[in-house]
């Protein structure tokens, strides 16, 4: 943006020089016609002829820093960049606040400070710095105290100009596991028993908590299998023909797995457990 403004200003200065030459010959010069011939903005050319300076040379009352303070800020940014530790955008803000505090002479008032968005406006107003995305190699070189800071903004320099980068998240690719390490979840009681036997016979020392977890998994699997088998036998018994013509609603409704134990006689339960144990 700054370079475009300077290029336009150079054309306007040439137009002003042409205007002054024609003014010496003629009493009246058509400024609009001259602006069209030179390809510049008519209002800006008129202001320059009237004596108003461009924004790069006139004083800016709203600017926080004066030219000397800007030079000190540039020097500090360049010095950090030359050491391989470029400043972040907020570090530039802190540096500007420190410069303003150093030059503040009134003890009755607080020193002025720049806003949080000032560094970004500062970068837009100058062509001394440009933006680029951060590379992974840049992250490894950014240190914050005794550790690497991977999520900070930075302002760095290159041979072609000063560079600032915005916050980016570095992603690392995790290699996919080999095919032999794919784990298949056991779904049957027999596969659960085989998996637990394989884990215990691997030779690795198991912690007490993990051993309790394995025993709990096996116990829950056996209880679930027994309840499923009992429910299947009960449903098969209800499908058998009965000599009674009338059945109550309680006799024909579906029994839940949790109610199986209450609907099975202790003797039938013992027989079912014995048959199940013999199958396993």
From TrEMBL:
GO molecular function: DNA binding
Region (Disordered): 150-185
InterPro entries according to UniProt: HTH_CenpB_DNA-bd_dom (IPR006600)
Record-linked Pfam families: HTH_Tnp_Tc5
Regions of compositional bias (Low complexity) in chain numbering: 157-174
Keywords: DNA-binding
Domain HTH CENPB-type: 57-132
Protein's name in the database: HTH CENPB-type domain-containing protein
Source organism of the structure: Aspergillus nomiae NRRL (strain ATCC 15546 / NRRL 13137 / CBS 260.88 / M93)
